[in-house]
From TrEMBL:
GO terms for molecular function: glycosyltransferase activity. It comes from Brevibacillus borstelensis AK1. Keywords: Transferase. Coiled coil: none annotated. InterPro entries: Glyco_trans_1, Glyco_trans_4-like_N. Residues 15-174 form the Glycosyltransferase subfamily 4-like N-terminal domain. Pfam families: Glyco_transf_4, Glycos_transf_1. The lineage of its organism: Bacteria, Bacillati, Bacillota, Bacilli, Bacillales. This is Glycosyltransferase. It comes from the Bacteria. Residues 186-353 form the Glycosyl transferase family domain.
Amino acid sequence: MNKLRVLHVIGGGEFGGAEQHILNLLSSLPADEVETAVVCFYDSLFASELRKAGVPVIALDRFGRFDVRLLQALREVFRSFGPHLIHTHGVKANFFSRLASRGSGATLLTTVHSSLRYDYAHPLAYALVSLMERGTRRWNRHYIAISEAIAEILHKDGVPREQISVIYNGTDLSPYRQTHLRASDRASLRAEWGIPADAFLFGTVARFVPVKGLPLLVDAFAQLAREMQEGPIPYLVLVGDGPERAVLEAKVREHGLEERVRFGGFRQDIPACLHACDAFVHSSLYEGLGYTIIEAMASEVPVVASHVGGVKEFVTHKQTGLAVSPGDVAGLTEAMKTILQSPDLRERLVHNALTLVEQTFTIQHMAEQTLALYRRLLS
């Protein structure tokens, strides 16, 4: 049997959930059955990580953001690689790939990782990307939604249900399961962040962008700090970076929380960061799935999470985490207080959540489902 030739296309300027998804997937597909490569519009950290993993990368970073010459460059790549399937990720990759692939004979498949309405808050930006996406859908054969919530958004937006497959993103759980590293991770990171060994540390890992709701988290933590005058002193660490960092730093100063809140910056040692925390807090206003929540669960860190999007499909209130309505600062404060004061609850949530992620969110499961879809689309 000839190998399936699959070419993934993505902007690749960040290293977020979509990029990690591609890296996990392509590192797990059987090399004797599938030949893969990735086209990136930016030659950045993601492209470097792909190369480290032995995945061929074609970087088209010599063009401007919406340079029409990108179309011809993509046509040449498609002609040279000769893919059976072109698998795209993100509005820009979808748009240019759909136009460039016409006449190539390749089948087009798109993975939808998030909701455009929340990715592009400005009305003009949202109108433009919606036009780019909907105007080229006629050339796309099938969609992978990373959650039922994303599938429902696609269906409401006019995509027939038979053209949508739900495949949960798989996570390499092994780095988060290295229990022998936890004590050293915890001690070294707390020392680096200036957090006492016996303090109760809340943490989050996120891009500092509006949809992540991080100002609400800081407000909720400020209220918690005011209420907790006795018992363990709570601290908060925000791991990540992005355009809202200055806003968050100003809010921390406004609440007088400089001694209690730490900015961890962009880091690649996320398992170590999670092991240093006593609880994980997710405050997003929307989430396609919630990679970092799954990683926290795999690290046996109890979770407080906004009950939004795909998160609803695996954070069950008082079973696998504490669920809070999006934007509810008082509810977030109360949930954090409950987690802090209830060691038995923390233990139960951790046990249930770990069982769930080990059954549902493995890379192997994701790779098997994706390969089966590839075969079905080409049969």
